[in-house]
Amino acid sequence: MKVDYDVVVIGCGAAGMSSALYLKRAGISCCLLEKEVPGGQMIKTNIIENYPGVSSISGSDLAMNMFKQVTDLEVPYRYGSVIEIKCEEKVKVVKTETGEIICRGIVIATGRSPKKLGLPLEEKLVGHGLSYCATCDGPLYKEKDVVVVGGGNSALEEAIYLSTLARKVTIVHRRNELRAESNLVEKAKKIPNISFSLQKEVKELLEEDGTLSGVLLKQGNEEEKLPCDGLFLFIGQVPNSEAFTSLGILDEQGYIEVDQNGKTKVAGIYAAGDILKKEVYQIATAVGEGATAAIGLIKELEQNN
Fold this sequence. Notes:
By secondary structure, the protein is an alpha/beta fold. It has 7 helices and 19 strands. Strands 1, 2, 5, 6, 7, 8 and 19 form a 7-stranded mixed beta sheet that branches. Strand 6 and strand 7 form a beta hairpin. The protein is elongated and about 65 Å long.
């Protein structure tokens, strides 16, 4: 069976682009396969201030810098969503909605997607007052009241960003303490138009004429209606691994299991970035994991020549 590329890198975020960079520089023909725009979670981050060598940069700019680096090396970029991966005797078949790609090895770097509340009207109100990306949709809420749900770093970072646009930002968190880094919490507390509503959960989404009008909060047996123009959810992430279920490489939560070299239980298939179960989810770690997976796969391909 004729091979289209030595390696298909699935996912064009920090980990995927790092893998492609190392593969191409080692003389391995590869392509980047992505179902959305290049950049992954980076493009949804307003300002990045913890990436080594760069004191401050927007997420979209860092993503485009990485993308330009791999495209300058003439790494092909293909748009598509993976449906399934089939392992033949000597090759892998990556099935997408637009066709098949034949390769010898794969790096999976599909990352994670925002977790949802699971409430009625949630899908209907996306784009009509409900969002999972403050950087993308924040400008729509200038001088309006918004609610941010979550207590981690992402929730606090996006709330701080939204405070520069919105009239009022209310952070809702189900626990009595925020999980975010202390410097972010202290920074948010000093911003006049940010307030906190702790130990409360969103029980219901309220709408008026097909647009979000507020949320119903619950605290014990008490309920409270909180009017708002926008609702931003940052309550966690779930791995984008549905297409890889048949490979038998996922743990019980849907994350891909790998060894110290980024290798899965299937020969020729490696994984990197936020699709892995780990303690730290940062751009810097994703870049390192992408490089590790690429180097491991390069060695395996050389051994099988």
